[in-house]
Amino acid sequence: MFAITCPGQGFIRASLMSPYAQYGRILSPICAAVDESLQASFSQQLNDNNEQFLRKTSNAQPAMLMATVAVAEILRSHYGLDFVSRATAICGHSLGEYTAMVLNGTLDVGTAARLVRRRGELMENLRLQDYTMVAALIRPEFLDLVVETCTAARVLANVNSHKQVVLSGPESTVSNVLVRLNAQRRVVVRTVKLPVEIPFHHEVLGQIETPLRELAAELVDGFAPAAARPAPVPAPAVVCNLTGAVTLPTEVVNTVISANSRPVQWVKTMDTLALLGVKTLVNFGPGQVLQGINQSFPFKNVSADLLNAAEMDQLAAVYETAVVGISPGTK
C-alpha cells in the first residue's frame, strides 16, 4: 500500500516546466486550464529562464501546483502508472495540500491555481516586516519539549519530523525561543534561516483566511465553511496538515484554508498513514525537499519528478506491487 505526498513551496527553480517539455500534448490541457483561470500566459513563464518571476509567492505557488499535477498526469497518460486511483491516501505539505485536492478530485486544476494565486497575493499584501522562519534540527528525544515551548510562544510553524521543526514569527521572538531551548541543555543542534519574507503558518496569516473562504465559496461547488453533512471518505483519502487526520470531502477545503495560520502537523500525518497500512511514499513533483523530510520516517520513499531512468524503474516496481500484488524479483 502506498500514499502520495505533494510538495510545498520549499523548492522552486527557473524553467520549472522545461524538463517536461517532451510531454507537451499531455500538458497542453493543464496549461490551458491554468492560463484561462489566471487570465494570463502563466504557463509560458514556467518554460522561460525567469527566476525573478518565481521569487514572488503569488507566482511560485500556482507554478509548483501546476508542475506537480503535470507529473501525475504524465505518469498516468504516458507511462500508464495511475498512482492516484490506486493510492491509499494523499497528502500535501502546506501548499501541497491544494495539489492533493486536485489529484483527489476535490478541485479542478484551474480552480486550485486561482485559489493559490490569491493565497500568495494576500500574503504579499500583508507587507510584514521583521518576521522570519527558521528550520531547527533538534535532538529527537526533546520533540515534545520543543513543540510545547514553540506553541506557547506562538512560533510553531511545522513539525516536519522527530528531528526537525520550523519556527515562524517575529525575529526577536523566534530568536528568544531558540536561546531558551538551549539554555540548560543542547536541545537544538543546528538552525537554518529560510530565505522567505512571509512567515508561513504563523497566526498573523489568519487575516487571509476569510477572503480565501469567500473566493472558495465563489469557485467551489457545494463549499461551506462548516460541513453540512458527513460524506463517505473518497479513495484516495486526503490526510490534512491541520490535524494529521483523514478529512471528509465536505470539510477538506475549509480545513486546508484554516491551516494557513496554524502549524503543519507532518509527524501526525505520517502516523496516520502508518495506521492506514501505508508502506511506501510516492513523492510527486519537482525537487527533493519533501523526499528528504520523508526519509525520516519508516516508509520506503520513492521520488517522482521524472528526471532519471532509475527513478522510473522504482516507480514502475511500486506500481506493479500495488496493482498486481507482485513484488519485484518474485515472478
Automatic annotation (TrEMBL):
It comes from the Eukaryota. GO terms for biological process: fatty acid biosynthetic process. One of its GO terms (cellular component) is mitochondrion. Residues 5-311 form the Malonyl-CoA:ACP transacylase (MAT) domain. Transmembrane segments: none annotated. Pfam families: Acyl_transf_1 (PF00698). This is [acyl-carrier-protein] S-malonyltransferase. It comes from Candida tenuis (strain ATCC 10573 / BCRC 21748 / CBS 615 / JCM 9827 / NBRC 10315 / NRRL Y-1498 / VKM Y-70). The lineage of its organism: Eukaryota, Fungi, Dikarya, Ascomycota, Saccharomycotina.
